[in-house]
Amino acid sequence: MSENAEAIREICDSIIRRVDRAYVAECGKRNELPKKLWDMWAESGLLSIGLPEEYGGSGGSLSDIVLAMDLLHTEALLLPLAVPNFMSRGPLLKFASEEQKRRYLPPTATGEEFFSFGITEPDAGTNTFKIKTTAIRQPDGTFLLNGGKTYQTAFVESAHCLLVARTQPYDPEDRTKGISLFILDTKLPGISATQMDIGMYLPEKNYTTYFDNVVLPADALVGEEGRGLNILFDSLNSERLLVAAMNVGQADYCINRAAEYAKTRAPFDTPIGAYQSIQHPLARAKTYNESARSMMYLATAKHDRGENIGVEANMVKVLASESFKMAAEIAMTCFGGAGVDVSQDILPFYIAAQNNIVAPVNNQIVLSFIAEKVLGLPKSY
Ligand SMILES: Cc1cc2nc3c(=O)[nH]c(=O)nc-3n(C[C@H](O)[C@H](O)[C@H](O)COP(=O)(O)OP(=O)(O)OC[C@H]3O[C@@H](n4cnc5c(N)ncnc54)[C@H](O)[C@@H]3O)c2cc1C
Questions:
Q1: Is the CB of 357 under 6 A from ligand 1?
Q2: How far is CA 15 from CA 57, 113, 130, 213, in A?
Q3: Residue 378: how many CB atoms within 10 A of its CB?
Q4: pLDDT the model gives residue 54
Q5: Which atom of ligand 1 is nearest to the CA of 149?
C-alpha cells in the first residue's frame, strides 16, 4: 500500500456516504454518466492522482488509483470512464510533445474533459494489426482520416479520442509498423456516431463511429509516425490493473449482497445460507477474490517501482475477471428467480462479469500470451 492509502480511504469513505448505489444503478439503466459521482471524483481530487503537478495533477501513483477504484466498486459505485481517463495519460506523458501535454492533460485532472479510446474495428476485432481506418499524410502536413471504429465507449461525450489509424499499408514483416496514434477532436467535421444497443447497465453509452475525410491537424499525431501501436501497448499493463480493481470490487459487492440475502431467505424455514450448496461457492468466490486482489496490489506496487509487469498484469486480468464471474454466478443462484429482477440489482453484475471476460481484452488471448511468455509455448496470435 502506498503512503497515500489512508487519505484515499478517507476520500472514498466520504464519497460512499454521499452517493448511494440506487442513483448509480438508475444511471446505469439509462446508460448515463453518474454526474454526481464524476463531480465528486473531480472535486475530491481523485481524478488528479497519478498526474504530475506541472500538468495540473496531484502526483501519486497507480497504487493510489487502483485502491480508489477497488473501494468504490466494492460499493458498486461504478465509474468505468475513469479507466480511459487515467490510461490516456501514460502514452501522453511518455510520448506527446510538451505542447500537447500542456493542452490535453490538465483538463483530465479537473474532470472538464476526458479521453475515449478508438482502437476496435468491426472486422479486425482483437487483431488490432488488421485495422483498416487510414490517416493519410497530405502535402500540407495534415492527415486525412477515413474509416470507422466500434464499441467506442463515451466517444460522443468525450472531448478527445486517442485513436489508432493506418498511416502506411500493412507490413507482414513488422505488424506493429504503419499504425499511428492521434489525438482526435471528437467534434471535427466529417465525424458521425451511432449509439449501439448494448444490453448492459453501464454508466456510459457505446458508439459505432464513422470518419469521412476528417482533416486531422499535423499536431494531432502523438509520438513517431507509424509507431502508434507500440505507444499504445505501453499503457496496457496499467489498464489491466485498473480493470482488475473494478472486477474485484464488483465481485465483493456480489458476494456481500448474496451473503446478506442468504442469511434471511428461508423457503424451507432454514436460511439458504446454511446449505453447503450456497455456502461453499460463496466462500470459494471470496477466497479467489482475495487472492486476485492480493496479486493485483503486488503487481501494482511492482509497476510503481518501475519494474516490468507484463506477465503479472495479464495474470491479474484473468484472475480478477474470473473471480468476478464466479461471484456473480453464485449471487444469481442465491437470489434464485429474484436474480433476474433488475430491481434486485444483481443481474447487471452477472452481465458485466461475462463481458469483463472478453473486454477490454479477451482472457483467451491473455492466456495465450502467458503460455508463450511463461511456459515457452508457440505464439498463437
Ligand atoms: C462494453 C464494451 C466496451 C468497449 N469499449 C471499447 C472502447 O472504448 N474502445 C475500443 O477500442 N474498444 C472497446 N471495446 C472493444 C473490446 O476491446 C473488444 O470487444 C475486444 O477487444 C474483443 O474484440 P471482438 O469483440 O471483436 O472479439 P473477436 O476478435 O471477434 O473475438 C471473439 C472471441 O474469439 C476468441 N479469440 C479471438 N482471438 C483469439 C486468439 N488470438 N486466441 C484465442 N482466442 C481468440 C475470444 O474468445 C474472443 O472473445 C469494448 C467492448 C465492449 C463489449
A1: no
A2: 20, 21, 43, 44
A3: 7
A4: 96
A5: 11
* Closest residue by Cα to residue 318 from 369, 259, 367: 367
CA atoms within 13 A on the CB side of 127: 8
State the Cα–Cα distance between residues 115 and 111, nearest whole angstrom. Answer: 10
- Model confidence at 2, pLDDT cuts 50, 70, 90, reads confident
Tell me how far apart the alpha carbons of residues 45 and 59 are, in angstroms, rounded to a whole number.
Answer: 11
If you measure from the C-alpha of residue 121 to the centroid of ligand 1, how many angstroms do you get, rounded to a whole number? 10
Residue pair 1/297 in contact by the 8 Å Cβ criterion:
yes
Checking DSSP bridges between strand 160-166 and strand 115-118, what pairing results, if any?
Answer: parallel
Does position 234 have pLDDT exceeding 90, yes or no?
A: no
Helix (H) or strand (E) holding 6: helix 5-18
The reply to whether ligand 1 has any atom less than 6 angstroms from the CB of 275 is no
Query: 206 and 80 in contact (C-beta within 8 Å)?
Result: no
Domains of the chain and any CATH numbers: 5-110 (1.10.540.10), 115-227 (2.40.110.10), 235-375 (1.20.140.10)
Contact 77, 229 (CB under 8 A): no
pLDDT band at 188 (very low <50, low <70, confident <90, very high): very high
What share of the chain has pLDDT > 70, as a percent? 100
Grid coordinates given for 64: 493510489
| Torsions phi, psi for 143 (to 5 deg) | -120, 140
355 Cβ below 6 A of ligand 1: yes
pLDDT digits (tens, 9 = 90+) for 238-287: 999 999 999 999 999 999 999 999 999 999 999 999 999 999 999 999 99
Strand ranges (E), 239-295: none
Greatest alpha-carbon pair distance for the chain in Å reads 79
Report which protein residue has its CA nearest ligand 1's atom 26.
125
> Which residues pair with residue 81 across a beta bridge?
none
What distance lies between CA 173 and its chain's CA centroid? Answer: 31
Tell whether omega for the bond before 107 is within 30 degrees of 0, i.e. cis.
no
pTM of the predicted model, to two decimals? 0.96
Site to substitute for ligand 1 among 85, 126, 127, 202, most atoms within 8 A of C-beta:
126
DSSP letter at 138 equals P
pLDDT in tens, 5-27: 999 999 999 999 999 999 999 99
For 81-118, the pLDDT digits (tens) are 889 889 999 999 999 999 999 999 999 999 999 999 99
Q: Is 233 helix (H, G, I), strand (E, B) or coil?
A: helix
